[in-house]
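User: Second chain of the day. Same drill as before.
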Amino acid sequence: MAEQRIQGTGPAWPSIYQIRIEGHLGPAWTHWFAGLAITLEDDGNTLLTGVLVDQAALHGLLKRVRDLGVPLVSVNRLAPSPAPQATDEGE
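Assistant: Same format as last time:
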């Protein structure tokens, strides 16, 4: 039986990720993480948030974090937003 994937939910589809690292990154690092929002949290951690096209992109990003030498706190894939429901207005 062939495997079926629901569009937008498998590992081959773009997903939004949040990567939390220990310590605050300075503004000079924004070019290294182009396309990701960098949020400095009150607890001293940095949150990187953005769309990654596939698992290879995620592993590339994690390699950059490793190369910085900062501890990785967490990696979370956010659930996709549900598609808007059609309404039957005017019937």
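The radius of gyration is 17 Å.

User: Great, on to the next one.
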